[in-house]
């Protein structure tokens, strides 16, 4: 502690020198080799796996995926076998834990078998939107100029039309409404959002010093886009894509509810929710269960999106 | 603490033996997901009324954290874990948030580091100053307005009345810092904490601001707790000095005594590294010396001949010639109207092979633009740049690639110039890959060789930039620039962002590499002290023009232009006697 060695100094203000044992000097700017090397993605993984939300949402998503791929494993009967009108809007029974629909079909089986169509639409639309959005947004943001102006205006035109409204108009004239067509139609109106985000991220990444450094090193322009700009701009798009998967499933349900979604013969949560309209007062369970399946699926994608955002955005992580 | 703001100058007894601020065994920690990380470990210091005390340390030494603990503004998850902060005998760590608000501003003022981000861009200056005064007094209406103008005038803004309605972006950095100082002193606090108040400003502006701050605090008898990384600045502006290292105080006491007679090895290193006008160029063997060694041996005539030829050539031909170069930027103002900005105005100079030239200037002088023009990252408006006898303007394709191989840049910001997604090995190998040099095994070997040249262990190649310190990143950037065995390195403020000891280390490394690889350097910097250490020739730039160009010794010993003299005079601690020199 401070000692007074200077004559005439005020109390506690003499020349104090800490003992060297107390304040050992580390070698100047030496690399700490004891710690393991970590990339941004490894860091993100470290941060994600510590969050219970990540594990809960992933488990739910895996479950939904398994149900979508192998519905037969989860429900013994085919959903439309053994529909008896006598069971119309019936309550739970042995072997039929969730009760029956208006047509007397097993609700549980319909929810299980409806997963596939809903999830297919969600995944397909997300993949389409993401790929188109990334390519268009990256090219527009990176090359700029006329290309950017044209592409951005085209994007704005589609952006101005709400996805569901645009889909209603288009679907009402399409003869065949399969999960693929629904996904395509929704993608047409949804890609500008991703493209805009990508364009912004690419713009900021291509202004960074490491890009200038690569230019000065003689790396070609396209190589820089692929190797430096894209990997650094992709994070926000991944976050939006995760969240939008949920919203596409909801959009499909909305369209089907309105009767212009998936065709009559295709089982989906949206169609079932739409069918339940008429009996909503007398037999709410018919509406409740497919709606619950929908909510849980969408919720788990939203939760995952949240966790991914926190993991990829170190500032959000620091606030935690 | 019932007493309200006193508008009169407090009467202070210089022989008052009660300390104003006493920090005892302060410990501050930051909570992270890995547990509490200590940032300040057992700091004690004493400050009396009317004194100025400077805390000096490199980044991460805990100096800012100590200051923030005093006013209870610790960032994020920081908290005081032990110790006392006695302000006029009251322990600040024990106060409730409400009580602390009464102390903050009215009793203890604070001037933050970055004038660019500490004023709210959507409110005008008058509003922001009024807000600060309102919080600490019951002045309202006309009185408040009058006081606001008074505060700004005191801070050195003579036309305060007319500028009240202006917004921060209409103020220069120096003026914004004046506003912040005005806010900090507006309620005549007994203690002012100034956290690196001028590190974002040019040296000449820094001097004005600090002179003004010194006058104000002396007039009001305010004590100042001054946080800085610059030992020269601390010595010049404070009677008392506290040197911090890794959260602990290594040495404290009267400034002059510490500088003249540093005891702790860390302080000794800091004092030795403090660049001053008295320092000499870092010595490295030059070509002519090498030639002498050969001739003394007298065994290899071919080598002597070659050295002789090189010596003959060296003084006559410049490797880089810049002739009457100008760069005009068109800046869009409103709608389709443009104003023109002449960033570089008729600049000419030459760089000889194997030498180090420096371009010095303050922000906006056009020095970085010159570097970009030479690197072919911007196109010339007029003039001519020759490299090795060839005009480089408008090179394209293969020729441009060839040029890029020989002239490599190192940028200022070691945090921005490396791709965070790339590990070090890939980063260094990138230029080799881009020019399709060698097999993957050869490239790997070259990466290891380069890491060795910049004194980093081989294991560094698997690291990512986020795991490295600023100095280490700058080494990586240098290694990447050297990968193609260039002739010229253009170093744009390459050491400005580093702590002084690390800066010295990098400058030493650059000097060694220069001798070893016969490199030619062009340093772009605002720091005259750095120039003194490494450069053979200097061009001083002001507003796009070169105002003085000569050898380093000439410029420092016998500056011809008033501007150069002003720059030299503004170097903090420039005329200080440092111990051990």
Automatic annotation (TrEMBL), chain A:
Residues 115-305 form the ABC transmembrane type-1 domain. It is found in: Cell membrane. The chain crosses the membrane at residues 54-74, 123-145, 157-174, 180-198, 236-260, 286-304. GO terms for biological process: transmembrane transport. It holds the Pfam family BPD_transp_1. It comes from the Bacteria. It is a multi-pass membrane protein. Keywords: Cell membrane, Membrane, Transmembrane, Transmembrane helix, Transport. Coiled coil: none annotated. One of its GO terms (cellular component) is plasma membrane. Belongs to the binding-protein-dependent transport system permease family. This is ABC transporter permease.
From TrEMBL, chain B:
This is ABC transporter ATP-binding protein. PANTHER family: TRANSPORT ATP-BINDING PROTEIN. The lineage of its organism: Bacteria, Bacillati, Actinomycetota, Actinomycetes, Micrococcales. Coiled coil: none annotated. It comes from the Bacteria. Belongs to the ABC transporter superfamily. Residues 23-271, 320-568 form the ABC transporter domain. One of its GO terms (biological process) is transmembrane transport. Keywords: ATP-binding, Nucleotide-binding, Transport. InterPro entries: AAA+_ATPase, ABC_transp_ATP-bind, ABC_transporter-like_ATP-bd, ABC_transporter-like_CS, Oligopep_ABC_C, P-loop_NTPase. GO terms for molecular function: ATP binding; ATP hydrolysis activity. NCBIfam families: PRK10419.1 (NF007739), PRK11308.1 (NF008453). Pfam families: ABC_tran, oligo_HPY.
């Amino acid at each position: 502690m401070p000692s007074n060695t200077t004559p005439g100094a005020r109390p506690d203000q003499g020349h104090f020198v800490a003992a060297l044992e107390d304040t050992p000097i580390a070698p100047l700017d030496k690399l700490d080799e004891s710690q393991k090397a970590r990339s941004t993605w490894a860091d993100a993984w470290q941060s994600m796996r510590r969050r219970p939300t990540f594990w809960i949402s992933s488990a739910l998503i895996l479950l939904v995926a398994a149900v979508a791929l192998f519905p037969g494993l989860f429900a013994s009967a085919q959903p439309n076998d053994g529909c008896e009108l006598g069971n119309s809007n019936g309550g739970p029974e042995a072997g039929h834990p969730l009760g029956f629909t208006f047509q007397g079909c097993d609700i549980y089986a319909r929810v299980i078998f409806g997963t596939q169509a809903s999830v297919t639409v969600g995944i397909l639309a997300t993949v389409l939107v993401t790929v188109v959005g990334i390519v268009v947004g990256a090219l527009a943001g990176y090359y700029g100029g006329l290309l950017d102006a044209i592409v951005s205006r085209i994007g704005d035109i589609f952006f101005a039309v709400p996805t569901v409204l645009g889909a209603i108009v288009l679907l009402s004239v399409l003869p065949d409404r399969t999960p693929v067509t629904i996904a395509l139609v929704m993608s047409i109106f949804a890609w500008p959002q991703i493209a805009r985000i990508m364009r912004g991220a690419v713009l900021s990444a291509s202004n960074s010093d490491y890009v200038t450094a690569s230019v000065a090193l003689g790396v070609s322009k396209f190589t820089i886009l692929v190797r430096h700009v894209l990997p650094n701009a992709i994070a926000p798009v991944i976050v939006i894509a995760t969240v939008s998967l949920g919203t596409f499933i909801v959009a499909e349900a909305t369209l089907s509810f309105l009767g212009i979604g998936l065709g009559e013969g295709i089982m989906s949560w949206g169609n079932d929710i739409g069918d339940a309209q008429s009996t909503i007062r007398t037999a709410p369970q018919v509406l409740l269960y497919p709606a619950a399946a929908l909510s849980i699926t969408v919720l788990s994608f939203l939760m995952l999106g949240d966790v991914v955002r926190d993991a990829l955005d170190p500032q959000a992580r620091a606030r935690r | 603490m019932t007493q309200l703001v006193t508008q009169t100058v407090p009467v202070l007894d210089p022989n008052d033996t009660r300390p104003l601020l006493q920090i005892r065994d302060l410990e501050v920690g930051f909570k992270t997901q890995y547990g509490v990380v200590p940032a300040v470990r057992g700091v004690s210091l004493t400050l009396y009324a009317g004194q100025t005390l400077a805390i000096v340390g490199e980044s991460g030494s805990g100096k800012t954290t100590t200051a923030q603990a005093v006013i209870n503004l610790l960032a994020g998850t920081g908290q005081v874990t032990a110790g006392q902060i006695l302000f006029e005998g009251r322990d600040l760590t024990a106060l409730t948030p409400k009580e602390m608000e009464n102390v903050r501003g009215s009793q203890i003022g604070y001037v933050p580091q970055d004038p660019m981000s500490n004023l709210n861009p959507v409110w005008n200056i008058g509003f922001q100053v009024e807000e600060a005064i309102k919080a600490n007094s019951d002045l309202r209406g006309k009185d408040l307005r009058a006081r606001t103008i008074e505060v700004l005038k005191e801070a050195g803004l003579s036309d305060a009345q007319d500028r009240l309605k202006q917004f921060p972006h209409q103020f220069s950095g120096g003026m914004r810092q004046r506003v912040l100082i005005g806010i900090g002193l507006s309620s005549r606090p007994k203690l002012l904490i100034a956290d690196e108040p001028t590190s974002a400003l040019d040296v000449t502006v820094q001097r004005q601001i600090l002179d003004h701050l010194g006058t104000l605090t002396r007039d009001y008898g305010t004590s100042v707790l001054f946080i800085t990384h610059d030992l020269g600045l601390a010595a010049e502006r404070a009677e008392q000095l506290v040197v911090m290292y890794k959260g602990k105080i290594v040495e404290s006491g009267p400034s002059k005594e510490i500088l003249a007679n540093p005891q702790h090895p860390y302080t000794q290193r800091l004092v030795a590294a403090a660049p001053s006008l008295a320092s000499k160029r870092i010595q490295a063997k030059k070509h002519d010396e090498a030639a002498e060694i050969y001739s003394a041996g007298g065994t290899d005539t071919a080598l002597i001949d070659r050295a002789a030829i090189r010596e003959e050539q060296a003084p006559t031909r410049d490797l880089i010639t810049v002739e009457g170069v100008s760069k005009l930027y068109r800046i869009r103002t409103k709608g389709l109207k443009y104003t023109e900005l002449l960033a570089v105005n008729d600049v000419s100079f030459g760089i000889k092979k194997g030498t180090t030239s420096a371009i010095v200037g303050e922000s906006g002088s056009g020095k970085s633009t010159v570097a970009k023009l030479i690197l072919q990252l911007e196109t010339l408006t007029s003039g001519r740049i020759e490299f090795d006898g060839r005009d480089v303007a408008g090179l394209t394709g293969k020729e441009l690639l060839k040029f890029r191989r020989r002239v490599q840049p190192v940028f200022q910001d070691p945090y921005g110039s490396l791709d965070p997604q790339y590990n070090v090995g890939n980063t260094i190998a990138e230029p080799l890959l881009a020019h399709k040099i060698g097999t993957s095994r050869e490239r790997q070997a070259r990466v290891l060789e380069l890491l060795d040249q910049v004194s980093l262990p081989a294991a560094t190649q698997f690291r990512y930039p986020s795991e490295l310190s600023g100095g280490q990143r700058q080494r990586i950037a240098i290694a990447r620039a050297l990968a193609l065995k260039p002739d010229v390195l253009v170093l744009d403020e390459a050491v400005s962002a580093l702590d002084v000891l690390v800066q010295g280390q990098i400058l030493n490394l650059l000097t060694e590499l220069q001798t070893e690889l016969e490199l030619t350097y062009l340093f772009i910097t605002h720091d005259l002290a750095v120039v003194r250490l490494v450069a053979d020739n200097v061009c001083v730039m002001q507003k796009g023009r070169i105002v003085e160009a000569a050898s380093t010794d000439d410029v420092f010993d016998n500056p011809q232009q008033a501007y150069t003299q002003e720059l030299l005079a503004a170097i903090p601690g420039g005329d200080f006697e440092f111990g051990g020199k």
